[in-house]
Specification:
The chain has nine helices and five strands, in the order H-H-H-H-H-E-E-E-H-E-H-E-H-H. The protein is α/β, with parallel strands linked by helices.
């Protein structure tokens, strides 16, 4: 398949089909590379869609062109915070299983997306307090093999202040904090949460959301 995206071409058809399956340009580029179909950057995909198929951005892109909003809580308030820059280099390369990105959605969901497989662990919580997040996290990670509990990259929200306890409670290898105002370091997780918000808008009562509905909203593969 040619690396240049052409109107009506096979590559364009492939990309559009994936977008309509709610995949982001980053995920599409990663899958094309993984399947050895063609090597093409996520920026090129986005620019092409913006120029040729703007209507797809509004309907299918998870962030829909909105700017990210950042919290006002200082990273220094998180006890035992370890920077992403001090984590294993393997995490950056996305070459191994078990390295994840984590965040919350609203006041009722916590998500952890594996960087290599794009596989999401999702759990409803009783709230957004640290203990709520810890309870949900321990439940999720105790339900998967220990070999898949290597690392988690988190944002700097106060809901993750108990992160240092997780190693003893569910054998997570290490937790690391992304840089402030740098959502790209957790891009897969941002995409996942954006898709969840697209399915479940603000003020959704997550107590009424079923596990099957959650699974559908985080479906990242074909």
């Amino acid at each position: 398949m040619r690396s240049k995206i052409e109107p009506g071409g096979e590559l364009e058809k492939y990309i559009i089909q994936k977008i309509k399956n709610y995949q982001s340009p980053e995920q599409i580029a990663g899958r094309l590379k993984k399947e050895k179909i063609v090597f093409i950057g996520k920026d090129m995909i986005y620019k092409y869609i913006k120029m040729q198929h703007t209507e797809l951005i509004k309907e299918y892109f998870r962030r829909r062109g909105k700017k990210y909003k950042y919290g006002t809580i200082m990273a220094g308030y998180i006890y035992n915070r370890v920077s992403i820059h001090d984590g294993p280099k393997a995490v950056y390369r996305k070459e191994r299983y078990g390295d994840r990105e984590g965040d919350t959605v609203g006041n009722g969901i916590v998500t952890y997306v594996e960087r290599k497989r794009l596989y999401a662990l999702v759990e409803k919580t009783n709230g957004k307090h640290a203990q709520d997040i810890t309870n949900a996290t321990v439940k999720l990670f105790n339900g998967i093999p220990k070999g898949l509990r290597k690392t988690i990259i988190l944002d700097n929200g106060r809901e993750f202040v108990e992160h240092y306890m997780w190693k003893g409670m569910c054998s997570i290898g290490g937790t690391y904090s992304a840089d402030k105002r740098n959502p790209g370091q957790r891009g897969l997780n941002e995409n996942t949460n954006g898709l969840i918000r697209q399915f479940f808008p603000k003020k959704t009562d997550f107590n009424k959301v079923t596990a099957k509905q959650l699974e559908k909203s985080t479906y990242l593969s074909e």
